């Protein structure tokens, strides 16, 4: 496995199954295998960026695309109007377990602040 090879690389290559809800040339959105809300979708860049620490100004466009995809997924999932949470767990202490940058899109219930 290369340094940036994760389970998400296999999903991008269709080597393992995922329930894909949205795809563009640069990003892929699929359902989280262990959902924390009735809507729980992950959005990843196809480029294997580890997390925000690994992103550079070269990735400006792709980072923008991820946020636009978040709004698109919320619309597709029917949670845009009610509200939804967008989370990036950046690094181990923040709860990152898969080291390929991903946005969690969570919706369909109320969320508390501050988060745990
Ligand atoms: P994080 O803890 O922020 O790195 O989030 C990783 C997320 O990936 C977790 O919510 C997992 O449930 C999810 N996950 C891990 N493996 C898969 C998979 N094969 N398909 C879909 N989601 C996955």
Concise structural overview:
21% of the residues lie in helices and 22% in strands. It has helices at 7-12, 60-77, and strands at 20-23, 27-31, 39-45, 84-87, 103-107.
Write structural notes for this entry:
With about 120 residues, the chain is of the alpha+beta class. It has one domain (about 5-105): HIT-like (HIT family, subunit A), CATH 3.30.428. The protein has helices spanning about 5-10, 60-75; strands at about 20-25, 25-30, 40-45, 85, 105. It has a 5-stranded antiparallel β-sheet, with helices on one face. The longest helix has 18 residues, at about 60-75. Adenosine monophosphate binds near residues 7, 32, 95 and 97. Adenosine monophosphate binds near residues 7, 32, 97 and 98.
Write the layout of secondary structure elements.
Elements: H1 7-12, E1 20-23, E2 27-31, E3 39-45, H2 60-77, E4 84-87, E5 103-107
Antiparallel strand pairs: 1-2, 2-3, 3-5, 4-5
The chain binds adenosine monophosphate.
Adenosine monophosphate binds near residues 7, 32, 34 and 98.
Offer a few descriptive terms.
alpha+beta; 2 helices; 116 residues; five-stranded antiparallel beta sheet; HIT family, subunit A; binds adenosine monophosphate; globular
Number of alpha- plus pi-helical segments: 2
Side by side, the strands of the main sheet go 1-2-3-5-4
Unreliable residue stretches: none
Rg result: 14 Å
Average pLDDT value?
Answer: 96
Write the CATH architecture name: 2-Layer Sandwich
Shape: globular
CATH class: Alpha Beta
Structural class: alpha+beta
Number of domains: 1
CATH superfamily heading: HIT-like
CATH topology grouping: HIT family, subunit A
What is the beta-strand fraction?
A: 15-25%
Per DSSP E runs of 2 or more residues, the count of β-strands stands at 5
Question: What gap, in angstroms, lies between the N and C termini?
Answer: 33 Å
Q: Helix proportion of residues, in percent?
A: 10-25%
Give, in order, the helices and strands. Answer: HEEEHEE
